[in-house]
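Subject: Interface between my chains keeps coming out wrong

I've been trying for a while to get a sensible model of this assembly. When I model each chain on its own everything looks fine, but I need the whole thing in one frame so I can look at the contacts. Pasting all components below, labels as-is. Any help appreciated, I'm running out of ideas.
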Amino acid sequence: MADVIRMPKQQRAIDKKNRIIEAGYELFATVGYFNTNTEQIAKKAGVSTGIVYSYFHDKLGILVEVLDVYADNVFMPIVNKIERLQSIDFDEILPAMLEDVVRLHKNNHQMHEALHSLTASVPVVNDKFIALQDDVTAKIAKKLISLGYDKPNLLEKVHLAVEIMQLFSHECVFDNHAYIDYPAMKTIVLNMLRNLF
Amino acid sequence: MADVIRMPKQQRAIDKKNRIIEAGYELFATVGYFNTNTEQIAKKAGVSTGIVYSYFHDKLGILVEVLDVYADNVFMPIVNKIERLQSIDFDEILPAMLEDVVRLHKNNHQMHEALHSLTASVPVVNDKFIALQDDVTAKIAKKLISLGYDKPNLLEKVHLAVEIMQLFSHECVFDNHAYIDYPAMKTIVLNMLRNLF
Amino acid sequence: MADVIRMPKQQRAIDKKNRIIEAGYELFATVGYFNTNTEQIAKKAGVSTGIVYSYFHDKLGILVEVLDVYADNVFMPIVNKIERLQSIDFDEILPAMLEDVVRLHKNNHQMHEALHSLTASVPVVNDKFIALQDDVTAKIAKKLISLGYDKPNLLEKVHLAVEIMQLFSHECVFDNHAYIDYPAMKTIVLNMLRNLF
Amino acid sequence: MADVIRMPKQQRAIDKKNRIIEAGYELFATVGYFNTNTEQIAKKAGVSTGIVYSYFHDKLGILVEVLDVYADNVFMPIVNKIERLQSIDFDEILPAMLEDVVRLHKNNHQMHEALHSLTASVPVVNDKFIALQDDVTAKIAKKLISLGYDKPNLLEKVHLAVEIMQLFSHECVFDNHAYIDYPAMKTIVLNMLRNLF
DNA sequence: CATGAATGAGTTTTCATTCAT
DNA sequence: AATGAATGAAAACTCATTCAT
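Reply #2:
Try treating it as a single job with all components included. I did that and got this:
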């Protein structure tokens, strides 16, 4: 493993690093981490294989930064939106948030799968996922409390709500089950969430 | 890839095949499919590497049969129990079923992760997972109808219920979030499920 | 690095392992350890690159076994001969031993260089060399004592004698200095050694 | 390989070149030529990797100049001292010279090892080593003759004496053998050398 | 002159699969 | 049928050298 990794300062170098992350993102998302090799990443990014190891310690290092991008793409928009709320109206918040989660999941579901698939065998991915969930839950709960929410077990509820939204998004995106009526399911899910809070 | 694979008929051969599947199960569950090699499987099964290719087309072939075992271990007990019900009493059924799901998940969660992780990159695993979910949902729904359940969107509800139970089991097993009060969460989940039906 | 290495039991496999060691011996001797790659070793040994890693943990593992062969080729014949002595007559022993050292060095000097060159950067080689020197010195000293030698500082003398013989052999083999009259030098060296004991 | 290399004339450039040689010296000495890369040398010298190729044809070019520095550090002081002698008194010269050789070896033994290790695989290093030994031997012999020494085989004796001193220094520096009494060995070595001339 | 980013061939090592015995 | 040695393509990673800026 390379001793030192380069922190690119010139714009061109930053672009290059980002292109590698993007290429990794797409390849990991489409064929999976273990089915992607560094040469493919380099080729897709339009760089040499060597330069990859100037910017990343190793292949896993790319994954870690891809995970950060994923977090920024998928969770941050939702958290940011919640944090800008002025008042609590779950009848309004929940449908809007569910829309967002579904939409963002649609754009990133392959990456979600690819990353989730590594939690079992790659500790750093697992740790990052947990930290991300903790962060999201904590931020949303904090905001709700600051807006006056005062019922018990808020953290558990937020955690569950986020997970159920993801679960539903997952169903929508993959649409694997012919017998499922998604609009109906959506209504059911929103009812569940409404009752939850 | 081997042209023909053997359908073992003698008991000794059946045992051998099963030992390979078991070895695969344990290894895939503990270190993941991509981190396991065929030599390790053969060794753990107490057979030669060559013989593996008499019983399975390739490494993926082992995975497929491991997946079947997983289905039998995890889903079938629950489905069977439901199918033996004489009457519907959700206040009784749901807590009992949740207990079962958590317990079975505890025993098989590593395999769950390992298999789930392959849905993105290995089509056959994805297909099998979907078929399994379809089957479980259909069987439970059918039973409930036969016992007189007549509210709408039953398939969507069953599907959701099963997924939420798994989601909760997953949380319990990994216990990754220090701020979660699991008994409280369990009550919340059971309430959600109770309201669902 | 391979988890396990194979201990070949069949004669064919033993031969193969030996052919790899031999190939390594020749290549390390002629072009040096760092200028030899595993593919070259495999090719010279007439085996595939993969099989090398069945018999050796890694490239360094080959070096270690090559070192053992070197020790057997170069030091053991001399030690064995000393150990078979019935009486001490340095006027007879020293010239004979010097002849042996020169001859063996002539046959193995390239390996000597190659191995010696690694003592600085490869700890295991250094350790083996030291152990070898210790062993040779101890065995010769022990034999001399058993034959009645009773002057002081025997270990220092034996150690020095062995090193000076090697030094002279080295000079003879490489014959790098045009101005050196080797027969004359030999006489001088033998006188030194004779006076030493 | 760079077509042309620069002969630095400005002081700043000379400093830069010397810093590269120094950096190479330290790195080759501590971890060996093959375990050092040009980036490390450049970094340690405080220059860019590119500039290295303005002053040296290639990595080997650095080694060659490092070797010159080594020669200046280790052999020249001893030769110079001999050349300043006014009369021959071996009882005085030999212990003093041995002291010098041991001291200089102590300061440079890592480089000695590193360079010696390359004689087998890098012809230019071998050639330089031989030329150096020839030069040292010739200069010392010439001086002794000019001071009236007239016994035969002087070149052989000087050559041997220098080598034995190095051999002893090497033993002292590494101190690898627990059973060696170094003061006693020193006395033995000095006796040998005294008898030699 | 100087920089350090970039190249890409080369290195070590792994492993699914085959095949001689 | 069974063994496990053998294959060789492919993977991750390194580094001497070049070159755009």
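Reply #3:
Confirming on my end. Residues 1-2, 37-39, 49-50, 52-53, 58-59 of chain B lie near DNA strand E (CB under 10 Å from a C1').
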